């Protein structure tokens, strides 16, 4: 196992890694990462406020989903992430363990008649079990996860100040094959769409960018680019020409994916409240954020304006813990857990029309929600030690 150490005195390097800059300038295969996502997304895919006035919503709202599978950790379940193709979900826990689950197996298990399930042999049960890997290499809570976009590698971050890479192509491998010893606990990570680089947000305000192969660390050369408090979320846009970060300092920052410089800051994005999450729309025209004010917002990147506010999730008061606002797979809806009622709020993403609540069935607060990028499914993680997989079945499933 390879180990790398990063001290608190992270060297300021202004330029991005040479191979990324050269690749973007000279390699035709890298051009897709330098162009705007709006040039590559098919019409009618995802939200576009310029052309969506008469869009008929065909995807199911949150209240139509049902629980298909439940997996348990030995401690509070704190984080989850989907693979890019939506086939796998990884969950992480305060017990320091990570599970990787197969979505098709979860659906098959939930549809299996009880008598068939009871008569399965041990071999059949192992072959059909939704949990395909359990990984142990952290010594404290797993706080963030990200699948490599093209290889069978899972990155994880923890309260133990380490970033680890797991090769889950090997059934027997339960330990990381590489790790970085960071100077602070990790909060959020995001792979570059090429898989060659990894954004890392920690308890420290300085954003890190790592070369996945060498683990060399890069940061902006201008200290004024950085946040002033804990980084809560990091996210690349699909074309990799920019990325977004959000922080406990109440701001959202938009960064240039090539120069590694902050180009826009949305100060007091949630009226001064901590910003818990920030993600791009499929066409990269918008950012969806959520804050501890229990509000989700849709931002237009070109103007820096808030286009839509999704309110009503915290009628009994501001939330205490971080959670995430997410799009569904078609971006027709915005979803945000309500901490006090342990239910899921759902809004029409274009009009902010409030839809029916979905009771999430957990016995404690929900700390994470992730929606599939490809189909009507999502995972919720709770302090009741459980992760629940939700899906909207159709007649063809």
Structural notes for this entry:
One of its GO terms (cellular component) is mRNA cleavage stimulating factor complex. It is found in: Nucleus. The protein has a single domain (2-40, 66-391), classed as YVTN repeat-like/Quinoprotein amine dehydrogenase (Methylamine Dehydrogenase, Chain H), CATH 2.130.10. The chain is 8% helix and 39% strand. It contains 4 helices and 29 strands. It has helices at 18-26, 103-111, 114-118, 122-128; strands spanning 2-5, 66-72, 77-82, 88-93, 97-102, 131-136, 142-147, 153-158, 162-167, 178-181, 186-191, 197-202, 208-211, 217-218, 231-236, 242-247, 252-256, 262-266, 275-280, 286-291, 296-300, 305-310, 326-327, 333-338, 343-348, 358-359, 366-371, 377-382, 386-391. The strands form 7 sheets. The protein has a 5-stranded mixed β-sheet with strand order 1-10-9-8-7, with no helix packed on it. Strands 2-29-28-27 form a 4-stranded antiparallel β-sheet, with helices on one face. A 4-stranded antiparallel β-sheet has the order 3-4-5-6. The longest helix is centred in the N-terminal third of the chain and has 9 residues, at 18-26.
């Amino acid at each position: 196992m390879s180990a790398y150490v990063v001290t608190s005195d992270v060297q300021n390097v202004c330029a991005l890694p040479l191979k990324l800059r050269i690749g973007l300038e000279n390699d035709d295969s890298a051009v897709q990462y330098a162009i705007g996502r709006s040039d590559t997304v098919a019409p009618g895919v995802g939200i576009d406020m310029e052309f969506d006035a008469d869009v008929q919503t065909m995807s199911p709202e949150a209240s139509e989903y049902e629980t298909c599978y439940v997996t348990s950790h030995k401690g509070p379940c704190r984080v989850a992430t989907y693979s890019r193709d939506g086939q796998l979900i990884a969950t992480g826990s305060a017990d320091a363990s990570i599970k990787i689950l197969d979505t098709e197996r979860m659906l098959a298990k939930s549809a299996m008649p009880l008598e068939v399930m009871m008569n399965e042999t041990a071999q059949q049960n192992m072959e059909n079990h939704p949990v395909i890997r359990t990984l142990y290499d952290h010594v404290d809570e797993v706080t963030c996860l990200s699948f490599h976009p093209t290889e069978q590698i899972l990155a994880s971050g923890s309260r133990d100040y380490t970033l680890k890479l797991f090769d889950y192509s090997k059934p027997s491998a339960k330990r990381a094959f590489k790790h970085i010893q960071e100077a602070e606990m990790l909060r959020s990570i995001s792979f570059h769409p090429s898989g060659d680089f990894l954004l890392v947000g920690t308890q420290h305000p300085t954003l890190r960018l790592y070369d996945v192969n060498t683990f060399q660390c890069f940061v902006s050369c201008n200290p004024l680019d950085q946040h002033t408090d804990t980084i809560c979320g990091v996210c690349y846009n699909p074309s990799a020409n920019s990325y977004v970060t959000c922080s406990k300092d109440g701001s959202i920052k938009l960064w240039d994916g090539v120069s590694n410089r902050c180009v826009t800051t949305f100060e007091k994005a949630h009226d001064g409240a901590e910003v818990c999450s920030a993600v791009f729309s499929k066409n990269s025209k918008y950012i969806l954020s959520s804050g501890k004010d229990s509000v989700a917002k849709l931002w237009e990147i070109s103007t820096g304006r808030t286009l839509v506010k999704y309110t009503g999730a915290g009628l009994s008061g501001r939330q205490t813990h971080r959670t995430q606002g997410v799009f569904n797979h078609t971006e027709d809806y915005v979803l945000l857990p309500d901490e006090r009622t342990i239910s899921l709020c759902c809004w029409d993403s274009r009009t902010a029309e409030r839809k029916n609540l979905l009771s999430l069935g957990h016995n404690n607060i929900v700390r994470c929600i992730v929606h599939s990028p490809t189909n009507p499914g999502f995972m919720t993680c709770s302090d009741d030690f459980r992760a629940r997989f939700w899906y909207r079945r159709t007649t063809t499933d």
